Amino acid sequence: MAISGKIKALLQLKGKEQIDLARHLEISKQSLSNKFYRESFSAEDLIKIGTFLSCDLAFIVDDKTKVVLNQDDIKAKETAK
Known about the structure:
Blueprint: H1 3-14, H2 18-25, H3 29-38, H4 43-52, E1 57-61, E2 65-69, H5 71-80
Antiparallel strand pairs: 1-2
């Protein structure tokens, strides 16, 4: 399943609407629809989506090591600018 399908499934599972996600991302519903259609979510988008859905965004290495990305990683990026 592509990332858009996974995000849509999580929205449904959490009882959230796409319009609410668009507001959280501070974009229009049309811009969000375009992201779904083009599969064009940035890392920052995915972190914000995880926060919105109360989910972890993580890389799992060798079934042992888990690296979780969260809102603090976005703030660190903004501070580094």
